[in-house]
Amino acid sequence: MKADTVSMQPIGCVRSPYRDTSQIPKGLGAKHETEGFLELRPELEPGLADIEGFSHLYVIWVFDRSEGSSLVATPPSDTRQHGVFATRSPRRPNPIGLTVVELLSREGPRLRVRGIDMLDGTPILDIKPYLSSIPEDRLRRGWLAEAEAKARR
Ligand SMILES: C[S@@+](CC[C@H](N)C(=O)[O-])C[C@H]1O[C@@H](n2cnc3c(N)ncnc32)[C@H](O)[C@@H]1O
Description:
mainly beta, six-stranded antiparallel beta barrel, two-stranded antiparallel ribbon, 1 helix, 8 strands, 29% strand
């Protein structure tokens, strides 16, 4: 490994109606339809050229308000404990979040998006176009598929 610590500067932050984690939908069947903005630093605006052609984006961000980390987590969608890397827990060794959002429009360095699950002011590390080439029949959903089946019974 070349470096054992990594330092990054956020490219911007999320503008969201959520001020508290209790306001964000959680658990099985939670829908993320909330709209907000990804606000980039103005000098980075040239990096958004041609982004309007993509319907969805990956947003890579920092859980800046999570405390500590744990190698196991019991997600709100299950009653069982799982290894943190098999979950989307905010309390992880590197507090990095990943959200797929729908791009609605662009206003200069601001992207209006739907599907945010981040608190207002969350730092953004990167944005990339969402491209999925994995056929549905090759995808496995692990413990989540079991939890969903149990909830349907
Ligand atoms: C389960 S995580 C999933 C986030 C992302 N979709 C992912 O998979 O990495 C979503 C939860 O993170 C918490 N959260 C959102 N923004 C946060 C922030 N800036 N700092 C700490 N926790 C945050 C909220 O409790 C929210 O319900």
